[in-house]
Amino acid sequence: MTRTVYVNGDYLPETEATVSIFDRGFLMADGVYEVTSVLGGKLIDFEGHVLRLQRSLEALDMAEPCSRDALLEIHRRLVELNGIDEGLVYLQVTRGSDGDRDFAFPAEDTPPTLVLFTQNKPGLADNPAARKGARIISIEDIRWGRRDIKTVQLLYPSMGKMMAKKAGCDDAWMVEDGHVTEGTSNNAYFVKDGVIVTRPLSTEILHGITRKAVLRLASEAQLKVEERLFTIDEAKAADEAFTTSASAFVMPVVEIDGVSLGDGTPGPIARRLREIYLEESVKTAI
Ligand code: PMP
Q1: Which of 175, 245, 247, 249, when mutated, tests ligand 1's pocket best, judged by the most ligand atoms within 8 Å of its CB?
Q2: Per the residue annotation, which of 121, 132, 150, 212 is the catalytic one?
């Protein structure tokens, strides 16, 4: 089926949607993005994604392409036009183009480029991969220093994912100065003696929308949470581990660098948090 996508005010078949070759998103990775999941045809944590988008745009001195209400309308219309029950809405804003290539930003009145498209993912909530758990490798984190801005510079995370695949694994966690930062496209956690440990928020990691929700739900469920730096060796010696992201929710991790965690199957805390998160986020979806 040909998708209907959104580009700068128009809803078009994907085959007819175009962006300039001079667009700074294409030439300079000068753009930011958001991915919002859809369950039961509704948007999960839309407000969180809009707030983070505004924060990313502000950090890069980029204009907001439109209001929160207009964005909600575009998300909803794409979900409807493409008949999405379970899936994702991808949104990208770039600094646009003034018709040439230059390191300096274009004039402030250059309109940003706004693109959105849906990805149909039936079975997103009841994902067999979550029942099996992910096997991960650790790699060095050599990304730039403002990982809290959700930019489209995804080359290294993408290479990390391929390093994991080559090693016969599912994903990679990145390590900087001896401490785990995050996964290629998710936040990282381990559990030891009932305590959930994850890296605190800073410019070194993306401030995950799912992270925020899961940590709140964990506290509400009387689970202990410690936000602190941790090493890959601590994670390897853990009882269980997991990752969080808008597209995979809570994903149990069962192996790190060839070392099985616990009995090698998804741990009880990760499974419980996945269940609670899905239940709660569907309730508040819009
Ligand atoms: N860290 C990185 C590097 C990511 O790319 C993502 C997902 N985009 C996350 C964390 C998780 O963030 P969220 O829960 O908002 O999807």
Answers
A1: 245
A2: 150
46-59 vs 209-220: helix crossing angle, rounded to 10: 130
Pocket test for ligand 1, best of 185, 204, 215 (most atoms within 8 A of CB): 185
Q: Which amino acid is at 121?
A: K
Residue 20: per-residue pLDDT = 97
Q: Which atom of ligand 1 is nearest to the CA of 205?
A: 1
- CATH H-level superfamily of 128-284: D-amino Acid Aminotransferase, subunit A, domain 2 (3.20.10.10)
Closest by CA to 155, choosing from 166, 171, 144, is 144
Nearest CA to 235 among 174, 166, 186? 174
Ligand 1 neighbours (beta carbon < 6 A): 35, 182, 185-187, 206, 208-211, 244-246
Ranges of each domain in the chain: 4-120, 128-284
Q: How far is the CA of 173 from the centre of ligand 1 (A)?
A: 12
* 4-120 CATH, one of 3.30.470.10, 3.30.1330.40, 3.90.1170.40, 3.30.1250.10: 3.30.470.10
Whole-number pLDDT of residue 33? 98
Q: Encode pLDDT of 69-101 as tens digits.
A: 999 999 999 999 999 999 999 999 999 999 999
Sorted by sequence, the CB contacts under 8 Å of residue 45 that are 6+ apart come out as 36, 209, 210, 213, 246, 281, 284
Tell me phi and psi for residue 195, to 5 degrees: -105, 130
Q: Do residues 85 and 122 make contact, with C-beta atoms less than 8 angstroms apart?
A: yes
Q: Is residue 150 annotated as part of the catalytic site, yes or no?
A: yes
Is the whole model's pTM more than 0.70, yes or no? yes
